[in-house]
Amino acid sequence: MTRRRRERGAGRLLPVVRRHWRLITFVALLGLGAAVVWSLQRTPIYESTASVLVSPPATPPVDGDGPGQLSMHDEEQVVRSTAVAGIVKLRVQTSATPEQLLRYVSAETSGGSRVLRISFSHPVPATAMTGADAFAAAYLEYRRQAVAANVRSLIDDLTRDVADLTAKKDAQEVILAPDSQATTEERDRALTLRDAYSSRIAEINRQLTALRQVKVDPGSVLRPATPPSRSTSSLTRNAGTGMALGLLLGLAAAFVYDRTDRRLRGRDDLAELLDKPVLTLIPPLARWPRSLAGRHRPQPLAVRDSPTSNAAEAYRVLQSRLAFLADQLGTTSIMVTSAAPDEGKSTTAANLALALAEAGRDVLLISADLRRPRLHRLFDLPHSSGLGELLSELRLDSQTEASARITSELWSVAKHLWVLVSRPEPPEVTALLGSEAMRRLLDSQRPCFDFIVLDCPPVLGAADATALAPLVDAVLVVADRPSTDRQTVVQLREQLEEVGGRIVGAVLNRDRSDRVGYQYGT
Could you tell me which of 213, 215, 490, 452 has the C-alpha nearest to residue 334? Predict the structure, then answer.
C-alpha cells in the first residue's frame, strides 16, 4: 500500500492544487477581473446613518398588567414599515412612493442595546444624509403618535368602565334608600355590592389620573446623519471578494476536472495503480528533423545518439535500479510492455538494452511484438526473418538445438548488445509467443546473456503479452504521462496478475515533473 492511497481529507487538496494550479490561478484572476470591472462600471452608492435611542414604554400598569416589553427587533420592522415611509414622503415632499423609499433604508441594533441605527443609501451623498435623518424623525413621530393613541384608547376604555360601575352603584343605592321596602337580606347584599363598586371606581380613577399625567417619550436622536465621504462599494473589498470567489470556483473546477480526467496524474499515481515503484521518469524526447531521420537512417535513441542528454541519464537510472532489482530477485529475462500502443515501450526497451550494454552487461534484445515490430527501425536492421520463423522451426522440430539455430538470427548492434528482430504478422502470433518453443528459446539463452530484454505487444487488445508474461522473469510497464488512461493501467495490472506476470516496476514517459534531475543532467 503506497503512501498516497492512505491520504484522506485535506491531504488530497495539495496534490490537486499542484496538478491544476494553472486552472485555479486562471479562474481566481478571472474572478478578480470581473469584480474590478463590475466595481468600476457600477454607480457609487453612499450611505449615511442616524442613531436613535429608543425609550421603553412609559404607560402605567392597567388592571395589574405591567408596562409592555421593548422589542428592538419589532422596532427595526417599524422603521421599515410603509407607515413610517409615508411620514417621510410628507416631510421631504418627494415624488417617490413609500415602497420605493423603503428600498434605500435599513435598520439594525447590536446586542441588547436600545440604540437603533437607521441607514439610508443613495447615489447622491446629500440625499443619503437627508433620508437617514428623515427616517429617524419619522420613526420617532410614528412612535409618539402610536404611544399617544394607545394612551387615549386606555383612557376611553377606563372612562366607560367608570360609567358602567357608577350606574351599577346607583342601582344599589336605590335598594339601600330609607323608603325602600327591601328585606334585610337584600339590603346586606346591596351594601356589599355598593362598596365593591365604589372601591373599583376609586381604583380606575387613580389609573385615569396616572394616564392623564403620562408624558409621551418615544426616544431621541443620539447622533444625526452626516454627509458620507466615500461610497459603500469599495474597489479593494470587491476585488478581494471577487478573487476569493474565483479561488473557490477554481478549486471546485480543479476537483471536478481531477475526478473526471482519466489521464495519469504523475509518478505517485502510476505507482499507486500498479502498487509497484516507478523506476525512472523520462523527459520528453527531442524529435529529429525528417531530413535526418529519413528512410535510410535509424531513428534516434537517447543513450546511443545523445549520451549526455537528460533522457539518456534517465535511462541509465532505470538501468541501475533494474539491475539492482534483478540481482536481488534473480531476474534475467525482462518483458517491456504497456497498456496500449504508442506509449514508448519499444524506445524504452531499446534504450534500456543500450544502457545495460554500456554498463558492461551482455544483453539480448528480442523484438517480441510480432504484430507491429519496431526494433529493426530503431537499429536500421533488415527483418525478412527473425523470431517468428525461429519459433515456428522450434515448434515443428522439438529436437532442434535452439542455441545453434538462434545464432544465425542475431545482430550485433553495439558492444555487449545483440538484437533478434521479427517480421510482421507471422501466423498464430499468440500461440507462438506462449509456446513451449518460446520457453525453450529463453531457457537456452539465459546462460549466454546477463539480461534478455523483450519488446512485447501492449497488454490490452490482444492476448500476446499475457501469453508471454508467464515465461519471463519480470515485467516492466511503460506508461505515457500525457496519453495513458488510468483505467487501462488498472486493467493491465489485473490481466498480468491473472496469468502470473511479475511486475517489478514502471517507467513514465514524457514527464516534466523531475526538473531538478533534468537540469542536473544537462
Answer: 452
Find where cell 522439438 sits.
398
427 and 479: one domain? yes
Query: Any idea which residue has 513514465 for its cell?
Result: 508
Distance, first Cα to last Cα, the chain:
35
Instruction: Tell me the pLDDT tens digit for each residue of 244-278.
Output: 898 898 888 888 877 777 778 788 889 999 999 99
**Cβ pair 229, 129 in contact under 8 A:** no
pLDDT digits (tens, 9 = 90+) for 207-221: 888 888 777 778 888
CA 520 to CA 247: how far, in whole Å?
35
Are 278 and 420 in the same domain? yes
* CATH for 194: 3.30.1890
Residue ranges for the chain with pLDDT beneath 50 = 1-10, 66, 288-297, 516-522
Q: How many residues does the chain have?
A: 522
The answer to whether residues 33 and 80 belong to one domain is no
Residue 219 belongs to some domain of the structure: yes
Name the residue range of residue 172's domain: 46-223
Phi, psi of 416 (to 5 degrees): 70, 10
Which residues are 278's β-sheet partners? 506
User: What would the grid cell of residue 352 be?
Assistant: 534500456
Tell me the C-alpha distance between 372 and 365, whole Å: 16
Which H, E and C letters describe 252-275, residue by residue? HHHHHHHHHCCECCCHHHHHHHHC
Task: Say yes or no: 84 and 58 in one domain.
Answer: yes
CA pair distance 108, 113, nearest whole angstrom: 10
Burial class (CB in 10 A: 0-12, 13-18, 19+), 273: buried
- Of 196, 243, 337, 182, nearest in space to 33 by CA: 243
Nearest to 461 by CA among 370, 348, 341, 375: 341
How far, in Å, CA of 197 to CA of 502, rounded? 110
